[in-house]
Amino acid sequence: MEKYVTTEASKIKRGAKRASYDKATVFQILDDHFICHIPYVYEDTPISIPTIYARFQETLYIHGAMGNRMLNSIASLPQTSITVTHLDGLVLARSAFHHSVNYRSVVVFGKPRVVISEKEKNKALELIVEHMAKGRWEEIRVPNEKEIKITQVLALDITEASAKIRQGPPVDDQEDYDLELWAGVVPVKTIYEKAVPDPDLKFALDTPTSVKKLTENDK
Q1: Residue 184: is it exposed, middle or buried by C-beta count within 10 angstroms (0-12/13-18/19+)?
Q2: pLDDT digit string (tens) for 142-191?
Q3: What's the structural domain count of the chain?
Q4: Residue 209 domain-assigned?
Q5: 107 Cβ neighbours under 8 A, 6+ residues apart
Q6: Beta-strand relationship, 80-92 and 184-187
Q7: Quick check: is 114 in a domain?
Q8: In CATH, what number is assigned to the domain containing residue 131?
Q9: Residue 215 has what pLDDT?
Q10: What range defines the domain where residue 148 resides?
């Protein structure tokens, strides 16, 4: 089982038994989501921005406008981090102290690089669209030359990563199990509901295959 080498930055100390540095686990958590959070500092103020991403092997791609403040802030850094989190359940314990959540999370570290190659930039944008809805790239107009020029793509080649997972019931203090209080887990799941067509559609069109696959998988 291939694992990432850890450093002081990536090693999980609190709740270490829930940690995993296994690449397959990290990749699965990344692939099951498409929204990440990226920290940066602007004029001495720390900011965290959500954005969409896609993974290809051990590289994450993010994109934005050429003047994007976050992208420009991290582009020249020797290293940055990206976080991804899934909420899987509310853990309702007998005591307030032990209330928690079930989750899957990943922190990845790597050196950002600006994607210069038009071929790689196009591929990155395709990966991002496909990560949102598999098969969608073949159903739409692809970016034209102007759109490619005004779009910035950053690649983060992963050098370190740590996953942390909590699952299962509440863990209460032993004496609290004798209390006549309800405890348990409320599972949380993201679902895709029926697609709503754009009111400005000029043609009577069937729902495309990529969209059907998204919504049908949640029936």
Answers
A1: exposed
A2: 999 999 999 999 999 999 999 999 999 999 999 999 999 999 999 999 99
A3: 1
A4: no
A5: 10, 81, 82, 83, 161, 162
A6: antiparallel
A7: yes
A8: 2.30.110.10
A9: 86
A10: 16-190
